[in-house]
Amino acid sequence: MAKSLPQFSCTACGATHRKWAGRCEACGAWNSIVEDKPVSAGPGTRLGKGRNIALSTLAESEAPPPRSASNMAELDRVLGGGLVAASAILVGGDPGIGKSTLLLQAVAAFANSGLSCMYISGEEAAAQVRLRAARLGLAQAKVQLGAETSLRDILSTLDTECPDLVVIDSIQTMWLDTVESAPGSVSQVRAAAHELVSFAKRRGVSVVLVGHVTKEGQIAGPRVVEHMVDTVLYFEGERGHQFRILRAVKNRFGPADEIGVFEMTGAGLAEVSNPSALFLSERGTPAPGSVVFAGIEGTRPMLTEIQALVAPSTLGTPRRTVVGLDSARLSTILAVLEARCGIPFAGMDVFMNVAGGIRVHEPAADLAIACALLSAREDIALPAETVVFGEISLSGALRPVSQTENRLKEAQKLGFCEAIAPRLLKPATIPGIVLKEMPDLAEVVGQVFGAG
Ligand code: TYD
Ligand code: MG
Description:
It contains ten helices and 23 strands. It has 452 residues and is an alpha/beta fold. The chain folds into three domains: 1-36; 67-273, Rossmann fold (3-Layer(aba) Sandwich), CATH 3.40.50; 278-448, Ribosomal Protein S5, domain 2 (2-Layer Sandwich), CATH 3.30.230.10. A nine-stranded mixed sheet has the order 8-7-9-10-6-11-12-13-14. Strand 17 (320-323), helix 7 and strand 18 form a beta-alpha-beta unit. Helix 7 crosses helix 8 (366-378). The longest helix has 18 residues, at 186-203. Residues 64-213 form the RecA family profile domain. InterPro entries: AAA+_ATPase, DNA_repair_RadA, P-loop_NTPase, RecA_ATP-bd, Ribosomal_Su5_D2-typ_SF, Ribsml_uS5_D2-typ_fold_subgr, Rubredoxin_2.
């Protein structure tokens, strides 16, 4: 058999390369390429005969997995109703966003609700974690604390203690002596995560792995961990804003796309049970360029303020600056406004922002973005009690979106009395809300802004 060639991979993005290079061609990171040592370099012998595996039908009834609630409602919601025994969870996020704070609070909450919990920090000394716990008022929680990076020692300890839940902060600092590359490299992260996840399944221990995210938004070392675990949560937020969103992007035991909202305070993370009210609390009198979007995050309706500023540009290529929204989406909407409604934005700088530092991913925000742009350009403020939602197609037509009723109910709850929305397939009447159904964007331009 031919000798297998050495393989190299980038520790930043996980791209594989045939030879070493100083710079990864895939992500542009410098000095991030390391040689991948095969975990088991067994000879390529022909596979012998195995035993037959037991097969069953889909109809067999299975009890729902046992869950433990932490009594942190936002966390339980994102987990799909509590922590499932023997599950593996990955919590990813930018460095400094608050992952360690969140998990220390979570582990204390689970300990208070009766689970035996362990928190292993590979980044901070035990004294540092204790100081943080004291600051968060959690010093009395029954959590076993360890500061260690050697996975062999951690696994032996776990084997003896067998807690219900263990938090590993972070997976990038863990190392296995059986793998030669440095901690944080793809092979180490992959091997360490594999060991921890298989331990979790074997011994019925829930494991939470903390993973730092690289610039490109991937969990460093790279997506290899994502497919090994049952649940992937991202902790996100804008620096300088106090809001933090815990978002489920994958969940084998619950709905994905569910979010939990937290606020970073001087005494740790506080849960935000009514995010709409908070996100809109900074809103002043109606101003041109400000539109309230009635969105849905996971299963929960959420109102956010979308802001636009349009100003004459001195640049050859005008600026398009977007915070909290997809910039490709903005370009599409600008193109539709120009091509279908005859409203050009050439020669104008466009700035867009979602108030509160949160991110809006839904296509239903299209109409709110378009209204904010029109309102800023025409210098006409929408009435203060109006919410907007709807998807815009390239033809300029408005497409209905899911959960219209929930969006309207949330708007009504927060004192709004008018909604601009696409034509509905099935009529929805919410008392107290006047629904302005629009077939296309040109109609919105004409009726709402009296232009076009
Ligand atoms: P941390 O949990 O250490 O982030 P990560 O583990 O994701 O790297 O959070 C660090 C930030 O949180 C730090 O900038 C300070 C801030 N913070 C507060 O504002 N209040 C608090 O009570 C705590 C513990 C941290
Ligand atoms: Mg940390």
